[in-house]
Amino acid sequence: MYRFQEAGRSMTTARPSARSRQPMKSNLTAGQNERPPGRLRAHLALLQELPFKHWLLALLLWLALSAGMALFGHALVIERYREGFQQSAQQIKQELESRLKVSETLLFGLSEMLGYHPGLSVDRFYNYALEASRRYPFIYTMSYLPKVAARERSGFEQSLPLTDPSAPYIKDHPMAIANDWRNRRGWVPAPDRAVYFPWLIAAPALAKEDDALTGFDMLNDQLFGPVLQKAFRSGETEVTTPFVMMNGETALGYVRAIYRTTPPPEEPGQRTGQVTGSVVLIVRINGLLEQHYPLNNRLSVGLSLYGDAPTPLEKTVYQAMPSANPSSLEVLLLPKLSARLPVDIPYFPYELVVEEQVPESVIQPAILLAALIFSGALCYLMAVVMAQNVRTRRHREDAVDDLYRERGHAMVTLQAINDAVLTVDTQMRVRYLNPMAVKLLGIDPELAVGRPVYQTMQLRYEFARQAVADPIMLCLQRGQGVDLAENCVLAPPDREPLLIEGSVSPLFDRGGELFGAVMAFRNTAPLRQRMLEALEASEKRLRQHEVELARVGRINTMGEMASGIAHELNQPLSAIVSYCQAALSFLDDAEPNKEMVVKALQSSVSQADRAGQIIHRLRAFVTKSQQQWVPVDLNLSVANVMTLAEYDLRTSQIHVTTHLEPGLPLVFADTIQIEQVVLNLLRNAIDAVQARPGWGEMTLETGLIDDRVCLTVRDNGCGLPEEVLDHLFDPFFTTKQHGMGLGLTICHSIVESFGGRLSARNRLEGGAEFRMELPRLSPGHFAQQAASERTI
Ligand code: ADP
């Protein structure tokens, strides 16, 4: 569990930092290789992790944002344009109001003038009107309508100017619906009426076709009649609805009554009786709305009835269309600005309507470009953030996966291991028990978890001389691992006590805070059993090895003995043969049974030959036929011998140093015989060291010298006297009291049989040095072995 925690921690902390801690390589060569620098590459890699749908989302957002920003930008531009438009509309309105007031003032002046001077001459009136229209071009004409009673009609008709012979009379136009006076055939003499208000003077002079108006009883006209009546009653200036004049222009008629008395009576009914005439001023609407300064040619200016009207169409009384036609793109994309401005004149029931189609010139590519770039940057940033989020989420998922995997491993391990594992928190309450812990403690895990650990597990210490601290508490206090004391016994209730061993380790969280401890322990009974068995098996092997070594040693000893006997016996046997041969020659001179003597002596010779052959065969058998040639590791042989001689060395106060060359080549030999040689050299060295007082020193060193595998045994013993050196390897040569003098002889013949060499010398610093050299293993050795087997 603890290892698992550690692994989890290292995993979660190391993983994100691994990338972030990667040093930024200075990438001078990157430009040369045309590869993006490290930071850019990392950035591109980050973006590549973004799923397609996120890219699509970012793209759509980019387009939407661009459109929104472009619209917003253009809305601001259009708003500025609208302000200019409003200013223009206000100017037009002010101009209109001032012209209306001028018209009213002119009319008022004229009416007052005619009221005071009823007999005002036509010329003066005409000049006045002419001057006014010259100054104010919007004035179309001015007219005086005298009140003509029925009895005054004929006198008045006779006084009319005869500019148009066809109309020197007070007349009506039965079809005189508004705007239809051009039809000359419609004029008829007015029937008898109590009073007439005929059109008298038109100044400036009207167009030719309008001359027919002279004598026209305006009171009977459908358009002017009601307005005249209204003006008579109100005493104020009244205005007609717009009408189209004979020249095609739209005009308005201002009407004001002239009273006999000044001021006129207050009662409207009485006022009408006091009327002596009326003045009419006709203004061109076009002229009213006409501007003296250059205006936007896209403006459409008009008049509309103020207040409610049945239909918008009826509301609009005049509309001057703009000179420039808007393009279909403008109509489709851009708004039409409109301003309806009430005219601040009480009798003027119209409002000014100004309209303008916003031109396509307000569409600015720079705004569009800026919107694309700005929103593109925003969306790119958003994509980067999304990619970072995706990466973070993926890392988190990976980490969680790893965590679960590690947890799975840890749980399976904890279930499977033979050690008991128990974890506790800092309050020493049990948090977890693995199956082996449950088994050893003999408790129900459901009941154990959450309970104090001392209720679950009782520990005592056999043969303890002093009180032993609780290992879990100690671990939690110190924050470091604690081994269970020796002879720790677990005493489960109603069960045999168990001798256990183990340790308690602290658990730390990511912040290094201690959050519990884990105790791992095991029952030592099976372990001890296994160790005993292993020990026994090892001893058995050792004994077998020794037996084998002794057996081979015996064989070798016998062989050498036989070899020595043969060596010793060959001389006398040869002498016997010589003497026998001499006897035979002596017998040649005497008379005894010569043939019998010869036969006996020949038998004796053949017997002696046979004995020599038997001895020879025995020697050959001992040195060669018992050998088992195999590849041998000399280091291993030395180690085996050291194990065998360990007891002797320990008890003989000798300090042994071994230098075993690692990777030493193998040799081709008989393992047992090689070990026999090593053991013999070791024993001789022990004898030599013990032959002098004090501590002994011995060194065993393996190595490769001139391509031959060597073992050198050095000691600081008595050394080799000069006279001994020559006979060292002779059979039965010994300087020891109970020595046989065969050990080195056997070693010599064994080493030579493997193609090696055994040599000895004295050391300068005292003591002897024996060196065994063997040829290293080669393919030829196997062929040689096969040949020798065939020989046997
Ligand atoms: P043995 O040990 O029975 O005497 P060996 O053939 O093993 O027979 O030894 C022959 C003799 O060589 C020994 O008696 C001893 O005099 C001499 N010898 C062998 N090894 C050493 C040694 N390490 N130091 C001194 N003398 C040695």
Automatic annotation (TrEMBL):
It catalyses: ATP + protein L-histidine = ADP + protein N-phospho-L-histidine. Residues 10-32 have a biased composition (Polar residues). Residues 1-36 are annotated as: Disordered. The chain crosses the membrane at residues 55-77. It is an enzyme of class 2 (transferase). SUPFAM superfamilies: ATPase domain of HSP90 chaperone/DNA topoisomerase II/histidine kinase, Homodimeric domain of signal transducing histidine kinase, PYP-like sensor domain (PAS domain). It comes from the Bacteria. Residues 564-778 form the Histidine kinase domain. It is found in: Membrane. Keywords: ATP-binding, Kinase, Membrane, Nucleotide-binding, Phosphoprotein, Transferase, Transmembrane, Transmembrane helix, Two-component regulatory system. PANTHER family: C4-DICARBOXYLATE TRANSPORT SENSOR PROTEIN DCTB (PTHR43065:SF46), SENSOR HISTIDINE KINASE (PTHR43065). This is histidine kinase.
